[in-house]
Amino acid sequence: MALEAIFSALSQHASQLSTSSLRQLFAEDPDRFQKFSANCSDLLLDFSKTKLDATGLELLLELARTADIKGKRDAMFAGEKINTTENRAVMHTALRNRSDTPVMVDGKDVMPDIRAVLDAMADFAEAIRSGELTSSSGAPFTDVVNIGIGGSDLGPVMTTLALAPYHDGPELHYVSNVDGAHIADTLEKLDPETTLFLVASKTFTTIETMTNAQTARKWIADTLGEDAVGDHFAAISTALDKVAAFGIEESRVFGFWDWVGGRYSVWSAIGLPLMIAIGPDAFIDFLDGAYEMDLHFQEAPLEENLPVIMALIGVWHRDVLGYTARAVLPYDQRLARLPAYLQQLDMESNGKRVKQDGSAVDHETGPLVWGEPGTNGQHAFYQLLHQGTSVIPCEFLIAAKGHEDDLKHHHDLLVANCLAQSEALMLGRTLEEASSLLEAAGMAEDEVERLAPHKVFPGDRPSITLVHEQLTPFALGRLIALYEHRVFVEGIIWGINSFDQWGVELGKELATALLPMVKGETDPASKDASTRGLLSALRG
Ligand code: F6P
Q1: pTM for the structure as a whole
Q2: Which residues constitute the catalytic centre (predicted)?
């Protein structure tokens, strides 16, 4: 069957399925959980609470086969230039290739260079952590500030928080926003004499990062003298010539390559701040976890393949059932920045409206991705998830155990809340059930009638749940790689290039043109009335 024929079969099947609820599907099949769950070692994906049956799943797998997921996956791992609009290979998987197998890009094995950078990062991280490499005054560094934005910030910032129990190095800080408040509030707490800056930028041209780096440089030069600057800076970039022009000496520059997309770069030298925080060995565990998922993605049959299943569920929700968003709900406070990280990964990759060949897409593409950790979100926006007019598929994440052995009762509560939410979304509460509960509480009949509709939960709302043993460096690496491959598979089905990001360019160009107008150096007459009005309000 051709792709479009499968899509119409899926739509027909969805209307048939709409007559039965998730409640009924569970009641009819005691093995539903076994049939609609899959594993990658201790990582479990439960998708039994999505509105799929065996026929729906088989049609989705047919979609994956017809879209040639396997062929395109193999092309990515083989270093083919699948990022066609930038004419680049997509090789973040080589960064966590833990085997001895060479990885060829443009006829060259890239593994020796990758290992050399990893070794240089480890030497530098150990020297900072041990105090062997000191500040200009000979003091050990107590604080490291990473200056970067987007992919040069979100990966390290998210993983640093996630792996807090493994920190045994200096304290990490992150500055990303060009808003001066960000760097001012960060520097306020720090002592220049014991602070090291990492300037992280793939292109080394990003205005936010360059502006923050210059402010940090001035802070060091003003307080410790110009000669101290070299000791307090290191850089991470693919643009080694531009780093040299900034004045950071070669031995403190950690490179990566144009075949690593910004939002896929946490595995590269961009991960240096994480390595400084948790140490090289734990960083290698993080890479090992991602490698396990890479092997699973390459080797597991489609019907047991976690990234493929999650992608197919994404397509089912977005294109067949028409849901516009998905909520990422980690029941793990240390994954507080995961939703923001996945926003960039997913929305910058799959927020596209044309196919690889430039023609308009045939289907809706990437959804709005958002979320907050549980249980906090329960007391904020879950009202809408349960009783709002829009259905928003939810993605729950939970570990079997936390790191606080003496606080196990907290973790039990966390688990109970996580499971309760997916159960509530699935089951809902009927008018009859709501009325009976009110009657049982002794309420008068007319009051029951008045209040019961407010206490109805429509239910039948889909969710998936990811469970792992514990949020270790290994488990985190595996989880991120899972989401990366899921985004890739969805992009293949939609026929888009998930690895460029032209949509961020127009705003950058217009900001550059507006700056002299904001400063009052040029006349905004060429601008539209709204922009002129706002400019004049801002300039007073
Ligand atoms: O927002 C666009 C973008 O290019 C992202 O893709 C990237 O992660 C971010 O800016 C930062 O870019 P760089 O690492 O080159 O400073």
Answers
A1: 0.97
A2: 348, 379, 508
